[in-house]
Amino acid sequence: MAAGAGKCFLVTGPPGVGKTTLIMRVLESLKASNPSLKVQGFYTGEIRQGGQRVGFEVVTLDDRRAPLASINASSPESYRWPTVGRYKVDVASFEAIALPELQVRADTDLFVIDEVGKMELFSSSFFPAVLRILESNIPVLASIPAPKPGRDIPAVARLRNHPGATIFTLSPGNRDSLKDNIYYQLTDAVSKH
Questions:
Q1: Are strands 83-84 and 65-70 parallel, antiparallel or unpaired?
Q2: Rg (CA), the chain
Q3: Residues in CB range of 7: below 8 A, 6 or more apart
Q4: pLDDT tens, 55-79?
């Protein structure tokens, strides 16, 4: 495989369709069939209070957690934080936990990055780390937001157009078939790595 053309499996779809759930189900299947698989990365989880989503947290694959964004951030420094909708993004918290997980190591078999989205991209170090992973030829399973007409995020468009990218568009009707499809393609990519 040519340098810079690593296998990049991208799950996209509208908000709330289940991209994170799908990625975690694929990862569970991969680990069940290959217990020695070395996986690095993170996923983004919702923070809920009283049935309402009040924020997001970044969670490493060994279950370390840190805040990513919140509607309740009210510390003095949070007034300077960037916002996405009504959420204030804690870039420093995200970077402290996510960036070490994106360091390329020789023994890593797979990277999971959920998600390469607007909040994460407020970190100026995040996308360069993603590009270094792609250049390493280590397979990547990542989620990206669905493009909005005329408002595509440049870094996301760059990923989508990457020569090694395979796009999987998730919908409520194709969850199970997509899980199996991604699992088989990733199993093949990891075994060739």
A1: unpaired
A2: 16
A3: 1, 137, 139, 140, 164, 166, 189
A4: 999 999 999 999 999 999 888 888 8
